[in-house]
Amino acid sequence: MSIDVETINARVQQWLTDVLVQVHAGGELELQSALASMRRAWTRAIAARTDRIKAVTEAQVLEVTTLVPFALELPIHTFSEANLHVHHMERHKLSGDQRPVVAMAMRSHARRRGFRAQLPCMIRLTRLAPDLLDVGDNLEMSMKHVRDGVADWLGVNDRTPSVRWEIRQERQRKPGVRIEVVL
């Protein structure tokens, strides 16, 4: 039985999600030390199974575990403006504060962590809410102001080709947004 790179990617991504939840919940884990311990664990696992795992090298494991060096979760309620049948000024009032709040939170969190984003990069935005939106246009539209705030933090236009955007959603009781910078 051999384990391929995609399987390890999936396991590491699940591990990263668990660590981010623990870090956000106020646990004593720090993200950098958690990533370092995951690298060591995966390196030991690969060394113990070198006869069965031929496709994965230590360098690939280190590359996989350093994918998300920066993440932030904000308690922002996002909703699709496509289904909102109100005056455009009322719509602006409902979502107008999201962009500056996201930009300010990203600046503050990055400064505390000593993180500087380098272009090109990928930004993964995850909408956290009890109900899921359709992926076609409502999900994209609900994250528009968050995306603009992250672009403001990066100092670029959100249409620039040097930033790739990935928008996801997850079910969660409390609404929020998870922002991850993936290198």
Question: What would you say this structure looks like, in words?
Answer:
- The protein is 47% helix and 16% strand.
- The protein has 183 residues and is of the alpha+beta class.
- It has two domains: 5-65, no CATH class; 70-182, Holliday junction resolvase RusA (60s Ribosomal Protein L30, Chain: A, 2-Layer Sandwich).
- Helix 1 runs parallel beside helix 3 (58-65), helix 2 (31-48) runs antiparallel to helix 3 and helix 5 (98-113) crosses helix 7.
Quick structural summary:
The chain is α+β, with helices and mostly antiparallel strands and 183 residues long. It is built from seven helices and four strands, in the order αααβααβααββ. It has two domains: 61 residues, no CATH class; 113 residues, Holliday junction resolvase RusA (60s Ribosomal Protein L30, Chain: A, 2-Layer Sandwich).
- Describe the largest sheet: 4 strands, mixed
Which CATH class of the largest domain is shown? Alpha Beta
Shape: globular
**Poorly predicted runs of 5 or more residues:** 51-66
Tally of separate helices: 7
CATH topology of the largest domain: 60s Ribosomal Protein L30, Chain: A
Tell me the distance between the termini: 31 Å
What structural category arises from helix and sheet content? alpha+beta
The count of β-strands is 4
List the strand order in the largest sheet: 1-4-2-3
